[in-house]
Design a protein that fits this description.
Layout (H helix, E strand, L loop, with lengths): L1 E3 L2 E3 L10 H6 L2 E7 L2 E7 L5 E7 L6 H13 L10 E4 L4 E6 L6 H6 L3
Antiparallel strand pairs: 1-2, 2-6, 3-4, 4-5, 5-7, 6-7
Pfam family, one: PK_Tyr_Ser-Thr
InterPro entries: Kinase-like_dom_sf, PRK1-6/SRF4-like, Prot_kinase_dom, Protein_kinase_ATP_BS, Ser-Thr/Tyr_kinase_cat_dom
Protein name: Putative inactive receptor kinase
Protein backbone atom coordinates (compact mmCIF):
# COMPACT_ATOMS: atom_id res chain seq x y z
CA UNK A 1 0.00 0.00 0.00
CA UNK A 2 1.10 3.53 -0.74
CA UNK A 3 -0.15 6.52 1.21
CA UNK A 4 -0.31 9.79 -0.71
CA UNK A 5 -1.87 12.82 0.95
CA UNK A 6 -4.11 10.59 3.11
CA UNK A 7 -5.39 8.63 0.09
CA UNK A 8 -4.42 5.00 0.63
CA UNK A 9 -3.85 3.30 -2.71
CA UNK A 10 -4.07 -0.45 -2.44
CA UNK A 11 -1.78 -2.57 -4.61
CA UNK A 12 -3.52 -2.03 -7.96
CA UNK A 13 -1.44 -1.18 -11.05
CA UNK A 14 -4.34 0.77 -12.57
CA UNK A 15 -4.16 3.52 -9.95
CA UNK A 16 -0.70 3.29 -8.36
CA UNK A 17 -0.05 6.95 -9.14
CA UNK A 18 -3.48 8.14 -7.98
CA UNK A 19 -3.48 11.13 -5.63
CA UNK A 20 -6.29 12.78 -3.71
CA UNK A 21 -5.85 15.91 -5.84
CA UNK A 22 -6.60 13.79 -8.94
CA UNK A 23 -9.97 12.81 -7.50
CA UNK A 24 -10.79 16.35 -6.39
CA UNK A 25 -9.95 17.92 -9.76
CA UNK A 26 -11.63 15.31 -11.95
CA UNK A 27 -15.16 15.78 -13.27
CA UNK A 28 -17.67 13.71 -11.30
CA UNK A 29 -21.25 12.62 -11.95
CA UNK A 30 -23.52 11.28 -9.23
CA UNK A 31 -24.74 7.87 -10.37
CA UNK A 32 -26.44 6.63 -7.24
CA UNK A 33 -27.49 7.29 -3.70
CA UNK A 34 -28.30 4.83 -0.99
CA UNK A 35 -28.65 4.32 2.72
CA UNK A 36 -24.89 4.34 3.26
CA UNK A 37 -23.89 7.18 0.97
CA UNK A 38 -23.53 8.37 -2.61
CA UNK A 39 -21.72 7.02 -5.68
CA UNK A 40 -19.88 9.20 -8.15
CA UNK A 41 -18.48 8.29 -11.55
CA UNK A 42 -15.14 10.08 -11.89
CA UNK A 43 -13.10 10.49 -15.10
CA UNK A 44 -9.43 10.86 -14.23
CA UNK A 45 -7.10 12.91 -16.43
CA UNK A 46 -5.40 9.73 -17.68
CA UNK A 47 -8.74 8.50 -19.08
CA UNK A 48 -9.39 5.89 -16.38
CA UNK A 49 -12.92 5.90 -15.00
CA UNK A 50 -13.44 5.06 -11.34
CA UNK A 51 -16.36 5.11 -8.94
CA UNK A 52 -16.04 6.90 -5.63
CA UNK A 53 -18.36 5.86 -2.84
CA UNK A 54 -18.79 8.62 -0.28
CA UNK A 55 -19.88 6.98 2.96
CA UNK A 56 -22.10 8.92 5.32
CA UNK A 57 -23.04 8.32 8.93
CA UNK A 58 -20.73 5.37 9.40
CA UNK A 59 -19.67 6.06 12.95
CA UNK A 60 -16.49 4.01 13.24
CA UNK A 61 -13.05 5.31 14.03
CA UNK A 62 -10.46 6.02 11.35
CA UNK A 63 -8.34 3.17 12.71
CA UNK A 64 -11.22 0.68 12.49
CA UNK A 65 -12.12 1.91 9.00
CA UNK A 66 -8.53 1.37 7.83
CA UNK A 67 -8.53 -2.13 9.36
CA UNK A 68 -11.78 -3.00 7.59
CA UNK A 69 -10.43 -1.72 4.27
CA UNK A 70 -7.29 -3.84 4.63
CA UNK A 71 -9.43 -6.91 5.37
CA UNK A 72 -11.62 -6.11 2.38
CA UNK A 73 -8.50 -5.80 0.23
CA UNK A 74 -7.35 -9.26 1.33
CA UNK A 75 -10.66 -10.94 0.45
CA UNK A 76 -10.26 -12.19 -3.11
CA UNK A 77 -13.20 -13.60 -5.06
CA UNK A 78 -13.92 -13.46 -8.81
CA UNK A 79 -17.42 -12.05 -8.17
CA UNK A 80 -16.48 -9.42 -5.61
CA UNK A 81 -15.04 -6.08 -6.64
CA UNK A 82 -12.13 -5.06 -4.43
CA UNK A 83 -11.50 -1.37 -3.73
CA UNK A 84 -8.64 0.34 -5.56
CA UNK A 85 -8.08 2.95 -2.85
CA UNK A 86 -9.68 4.60 0.13
CA UNK A 87 -9.54 7.87 2.03
CA UNK A 88 -10.45 8.49 5.64
CA UNK A 89 -10.54 11.58 7.84
CA UNK A 90 -12.74 12.70 10.72
CA UNK A 91 -15.25 14.20 8.29
CA UNK A 92 -14.95 11.94 5.25
CA UNK A 93 -14.77 8.28 4.26
CA UNK A 94 -14.30 7.46 0.57
CA UNK A 95 -13.88 4.18 -1.30
CA UNK A 96 -12.54 4.10 -4.87
CA UNK A 97 -13.55 1.25 -7.16
CA UNK A 98 -13.00 0.38 -10.80
CA UNK A 99 -16.00 1.55 -12.84
CA UNK A 100 -18.27 -1.27 -14.02
CA UNK A 101 -20.29 -0.60 -17.18
CA UNK A 102 -23.23 -2.81 -16.19
CA UNK A 103 -24.03 -0.97 -12.98
CA UNK A 104 -24.64 -2.44 -9.58
CA UNK A 105 -25.32 -6.02 -8.61
CA UNK A 106 -28.59 -4.89 -7.05
CA UNK A 107 -29.78 -3.45 -10.36
CA UNK A 108 -28.77 -6.59 -12.23
CA UNK A 109 -30.53 -8.88 -9.74
CA UNK A 110 -33.71 -6.82 -9.48
CA UNK A 111 -33.97 -5.63 -13.07
CA UNK A 112 -33.84 -1.91 -12.29
CA UNK A 113 -31.81 -0.32 -15.07
Amino acid sequence: MVSQQSLIVLARPVVNELKMEDLLRAPAEMIGRGKNGSLYKVMLTNGIVVVVKRIKDWSISSVEFKQRMQLLNQAKHPHVLSPLAFYVSKQEKLLVYEYQQNGSLFKLLHGKF
